[in-house]
Every structure is written in structure tokens, then in C-alpha cells.
């Protein structure tokens, strides 16, 4: 053990070193405090902006698309977590709170909705809600109470709920029917939610909550019979109906004389002799689609057998399995419409396309799954006769199936297409094609290379060099 003198010396040395370091630390702390004081006196440029400018910037921070509004990762809630100044600006910006879109369960939903709608003040509200995000019981009633108090501010409403959910909402609001005021409502979208083993069986109730909606002009109904929703049908200008019976489709067309844009999807067969042909004078854009092949009986294209649309200029038939060419051509002959855009996506394959009077003004044509017979006849007429689709400017052949049949038909589209389009450019008295597209959703562009001749591709490269829009390959990559 070291002597007493040595230990005292070492102790004194260490104490002196500590005091020295403590003095340095005190000096550093004083300097740190001085720097903090200087920093506190600095106004960051973003905080020096007038609140009106900051508010305008905040409006450009709101997420695009259909994200949850009630999400702290995105504006407006994210902006409130940065600092007190930003929080105050966000709360004082009503336009940040005009969209209330919720897809996940939140137990405090009634309280959140109340605060959200109040912050929007008197601005028009866009509300989108899935009933499954509301816990059962009194929480739904509490939310509906808030919804009722602010319904006069709603300009866009989207509800996703089950048949029982619609019944509960309707029953609750029925007691306040005289107080419901949808005077700003312009866009209404109602979706029936079903379980895996459920069928489309909407309860036999009338949804009377929209009795007062003088500005309503756009409606979407999914799986809900239109006859059960008293609406101001006469004033609608756009209507979409999914999972409708054929009678429901005709019901809508007969009740909406001012609709100019209509999209329908039917799912059940009926005796054709049971219906009279419905003539609608105003429809300009009409879409028949089969978004879901419901129990293998999607019959959307059947609707064409029972309607006449003399004002039609855009017709889209999308992914239907029951497309019938005779029904289609009879529809065109009856309508004698100024058709400009035609898109037919039928997996049955298109065999022929008659150039009826309704097609004389056709400028845009899209055909999926054309047969080889169709391609031969179509391109032969296109190359030889200027009176065949004389206004055609855009031609597209999109395909979606992964099978070899589709991939095998693409070379013919390209081969006969290259020759015909080149010949068409020498015809007088007809418009020239400005765009030609052959695309596949399931094949990459390199998959086409072994199937296409260099001569055909060179013809298209020459057309592209002359200013024509050419795309041959996948949706994302072209070989030309």
C-alpha cells in the first residue's frame, strides 16, 4: 500500500483536474445558453410567413387519393403535431377539414366527427364512411346524431354498409326526417356490403333520407334496387348502377330523362319479350360493364336489346361475356346516334363490325380480342375504302388474357395493321389515323419480339417518324 503522502498528492491532483474540467463544463454550458438565446431570437422563414400563406401551403399537403383523413401520418392531423403555431393555423383553416374519409375502426368516431365538421365551419363537406369502422351500439347512433346536425353542409356522400346497416341508419334518421336537409348534396354514392356467403338481398325498406336534395345530380348505387330510394330522378345528369337486374336498369333510364352519362352492370337473365324498348333522348356517354362476374351470370350487354340512345356519342362495353353482335348492330341501327368513341372489351372475341350510319362520325375505336376473321375484313376495308369509318383517327387493340391464343393473335394485328395503315395514308376523302396501339396487360414487350417481323416493325417506325402515335408491346413499354 502506498504511503499517506503519495495518496494525498494523488487525491489533490485528481481534485484539481475535476475542478478544471468543471470550469470548462460551466463555460460550455454558459456558451450553450447564449447560443440558445440567440436561436430563440431567430424567426424561421417558414414561421415568418403570413398565416394566409401558410394556410394555402397546408392545403397542398393533403393526401391525394382515398387515404384516411383521420390519420396522424398525413395532413391535416400531421400538421398539428409540428408546433403550436402550425396547430393554430391548421385549426383556423376550414378547407383542411372538408374531407372526412374513414376506412378503419376508431372508437371515438363521434367525437372526432363532431370536431372535424365544426372546424370545416360552413364549407361544403365530402364524407365517405364504411359502416364496419363504427363499433356497434350507441356509437353508431352518436355518430348519426352528429351526421344529422351537419347534413346541410354535405355536398358529397359515400356510404358502404350492409342491408341491416342501411335499415338501422334509415330507422334512426326516420325520426328526424323533417329535420334532414341535404340542400348542398350533389354527389351520392351508396354501396351494399356483403359477406362471402351472402347474396344480393336488400331489405324491403325505402331509404327516405334524401327526400330534400335540390342540387343532387350524380348518383351511384351498388346492389341497391333503385325503386327503394326516392330520389329527385328528374334532375340527375349522371348515374352509375352496379349489380342491377335488367328491370332495374330500365327503371333508371325511364326515370332519368336528363341523364347524359350512364354506366350500368346487370347480373341476371330475363325473358326478352317481357320488356318494351326504352328510348332515352339525352344519354351521350353509356358504359356497360361486368366488374364482377356474379354467379357466372353477368348480362350487362343484354341491356342493348331494350334501349335506344339517339344522342349517344361514347359507348363502352367493358369485360362482358354476353356480348352479342346482332344485338349490338340492331341497337346502332335503332339509335342512329352521332357515335364518336366506341370501346368493346368482350372476351368472346369480335367477329365483325358493320359500318352503320351511326359509325360515320366515329373517331376513336378500341377492340379487345378481335378474331382473325375480324382483323382480315376490318383492315382490308380500312386500306381500300375511304368511306369505311371515314373519320377514324385512333385505333387500339388492348388484350388482357395471359393465354397463348391472345399472344398468337398479336402478330396478325401488327402484320395486317402495318400494311393497311400505310395504304390508308394514300386514300383521299377520309381522315388519317393519328394513333395505333396494340398492347397486352400480361406480356412484356420483349415477349413480342420473336413473333413480329422486322419489316412490320420498320413500317411502324416509319409511321412514328412521320408523327403518328405508335405503341406496340406492354402497357408500359413499346417496341416502336
UniProtKB/TrEMBL annotation:
Superkingdom as given in the UniProt entry: Eukaryota
Domain F-box: 47-101
InterPro entries in alphabetical order: F-box-like_dom_sf (IPR036047), F-box_dom (IPR001810), LRR_dom_sf (IPR032675)
Pfam family, one: F-box-like
Name recorded for this polypeptide: F-box domain-containing protein
Amino acid at each position: 500500500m502506498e504511503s499517506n503522502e503519495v495518496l494525498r498528492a494523488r487525491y489533490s491532483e485528481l481534485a484539481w483536474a475535476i475542478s478544471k474540467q468543471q470550469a470548462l463544463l460551466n463555460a460550455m454550458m454558459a456558451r450553450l445558453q447564449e447560443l440558445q438565446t440567440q436561436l430563440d431570437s431567430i424567426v424561421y422563414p417558414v414561421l415568418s410567413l403570413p398565416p394566409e400563406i401558410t394556410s394555402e401551403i397546408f392545403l397542398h399537403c393533403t393526401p391525394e387519393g382515398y387515404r384516411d383523413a383521420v390519420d396522424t401520418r398525413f395532413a391535416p392531423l400531421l400538421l398539428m403535431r409540428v408546433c403550436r403555431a402550425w396547430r393554430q393555423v391548421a385549426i383556423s383553416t376550414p378547407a383542411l377539414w372538408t374531407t372526412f374519409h374513414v376506412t378503419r375502426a376508431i372508437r371515438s368516431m363521434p367525437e372526432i366527427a363532431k370536431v372535424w365538421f365544426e372546424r370545416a365551419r360552413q364549407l361544403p363537406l365530402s364524407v365517405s364512411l364504411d359502416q364496419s369502422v363504427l363499433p356497434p351500439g350507441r356509437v353508431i347512433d352518436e355518430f348519426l346524431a352528429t351526421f344529422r346536425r351537419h347534413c346541410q353542409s354535405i355536398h358529397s356522400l359515400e356510404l358502404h354498409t350492409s342491408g341491416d346497416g342501411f335499415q338501422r341508419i334509415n330507422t334512426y334518421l326516420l325520426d328526424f326526417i323533417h329535420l334532414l336537409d341535404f340542400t348542398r348534396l350533389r354527389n351520392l354514392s351508396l354501396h351494399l356490403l356483403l359477406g362471402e356467403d351472402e347474396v344480393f338481398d336488400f331489405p324491403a325498406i325505402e331509404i327516405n333520407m334524401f327526400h330534400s336534395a335540390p342540387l343532387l345530380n350524380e348518383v351511384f348505387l351498388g346492389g341497391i334496387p333503385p325503386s327503394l330510394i326516392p330520389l329527385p330522378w328528374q334532375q340527375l345528369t349522371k348515374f352509375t348502377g352496379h349489380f342491377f337486374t335488367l328491370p332495374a336498369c330500365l327503371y333508371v333510364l325511364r326515370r332519368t330523362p336528363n341523364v347524359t352519362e350512364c354506366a350500368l352492370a346487370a347480373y341476371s337473365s330475363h325473358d326478352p319479350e317481357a320488356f318494351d324498348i326504352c328510348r332515352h333522348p339525352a344519354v351521350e356517354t353509356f358504359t356497360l360493364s361486368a366488374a364482377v362476374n356474379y354467379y357466372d351470370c353477368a348480362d350487362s350487354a343484354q341491356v342493348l336489346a331494350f334501349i335506344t340512345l339517339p344522342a349517344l356519342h361514347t359507348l363502352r362495353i367493358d369485360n362482358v361475356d354476353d356480348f352479342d353482335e346482332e344485338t349490338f348492330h340492331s341497337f346502332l341501327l335503332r339509335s342512329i346516334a352521332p357515335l364518336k368513341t366506341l370501346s368493346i372489351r368482350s372476351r368472346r372475341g369480335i367477329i365483325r363490325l358493320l359500318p352503320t350510319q351511326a359509325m360515320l362520325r366515329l373517331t376513336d375505336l378500341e377492340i379487345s380480342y378481335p378474331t382473325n376473321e375480324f382483323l382480315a375484313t376490318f383492315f382490308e376495308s380500312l386500306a381500300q375504302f375511304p368511306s369505311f369509318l371515314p373519320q377514324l383517327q385512333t385505333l387500339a387493340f388492348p388484350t388482357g388474357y395471359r393465354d397463348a391464343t391472345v399472344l398468337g393473335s398479336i402478330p396478325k394485328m401488327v402484320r395486317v395493321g402495318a400494311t393497311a395503315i400505310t395504304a390508308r395514308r394514300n386514300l383521299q376523302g377520309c381522315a388519317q389515323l393519328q394513333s395505333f396501339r396494340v398492347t397486352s396487360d400480361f406480356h412484356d414487350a420483349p415477349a413480342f419480339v420473336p413473333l413480329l417481323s422486322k419489316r412490320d416493325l420498320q413500317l411502324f417506325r416509319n409511321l412514328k417518324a412521320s408523327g403518328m402515335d405508335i405503341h406496340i408491346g406492354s402497357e408500359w413499354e413499346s417496341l416502336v
